[in-house]
Amino acid sequence: MTSPLDVHTDGPVQIWTISLPEVGNAITGKDVIAAFEDKVDAVNADNTVGAVILTGAGKIFSAGGNVKEMADRQGMFGLDAIDQRRAYIDGIQRIPRALGRLEVPLIAAVNGAAIGAGCDLAMMCDIRIASERASFAESFVQLGLIPGDGGTWFLPRAIGYARAAELTFTGERIDAATALEWGLVSRVVAHDELLSEARTLADKIAVNPPRALRMAKRLLQESITGSLESTLSMAAAMQPLAHHDAEHQQRIAKWRTS
């Protein structure tokens, strides 16, 4: 059986492709949710992986939820309100929790529309590179819904409260150029060059010692929710580990002889 999240490994870089183009790369299905968890756990256990690229198959990055299932009241959408609450916790909300514990840098290569939970998925990544064909919409309110997957946590941290409020309250779509202007993505590239540009960036990241990369990412995560004191305390605990890492010793020795 083909996985809904295809993984290609090339040296220290993995490329994860959401392979559900027939449903707009929707991420609400049980299989794709479990796949994200499995891939995260596998990478965390493998110190040879230095960076991950996330993209979508076909023309869409991710349409988020399966709107047809909503309209037909299928699956979780046919449950009563109490059971639906549990279904969100045990379903789509497992993705932000999984990506939140991914230890290596995660680059979103946004190849097309990122809508609703698909937009939020891109916000869960550390870095976002967009194709010129990409677009973004926090479109929940247009269907009478709210971001149920953590979007109201991720989006303001990516672009600030006011911009996040505008996208969330209007549900309107913005193009790649606007996303770049607002700081939602770090760069926009020609569509045919998207993966190669993402790979170039991933290679620049993955060339660095893997343990240092993972600790640096953890410190950045701490800076979002923690205090200066907690971040300094964590850095003080981590830095001796870095000093005693074999790769640090090798690179220092190489620096001394260069």
Automatic annotation (TrEMBL):
<keyword id="KW-0276">Fatty acid metabolism</keyword>
<dbReference type="InterPro" id="IPR001753">
    <property type="entry name" value="Enoyl-CoA_hydra/iso"/>
</dbReference>
<dbReference type="GO" id="GO:0004300">
    <property type="term" value="F:enoyl-CoA hydratase activity"/>
</dbReference>
<keyword id="KW-0443">Lipid metabolism</keyword>
<comment type="similarity">
    <text>Belongs to the enoyl-CoA hydratase/isomerase family.</text>
</comment>
<protein>
    <submittedName>
        <fullName>Enoyl-CoA hydratase</fullName>
    </submittedName>
</protein>
<dbReference type="GO" id="GO:0006635">
    <property type="term" value="P:fatty acid beta-oxidation"/>
</dbReference>
<dbReference type="InterPro" id="IPR018376">
    <property type="entry name" value="Enoyl-CoA_hyd/isom_CS"/>
</dbReference>
<comment type="function">
    <text>Could possibly oxidize fatty acids using specific components.</text>
</comment>
<dbReference type="InterPro" id="IPR029045">
    <property type="entry name" value="ClpP/crotonase-like_dom_sf"/>
</dbReference>
<dbReference type="Pfam" id="PF00378">
    <property type="entry name" value="ECH_1"/>
</dbReference>
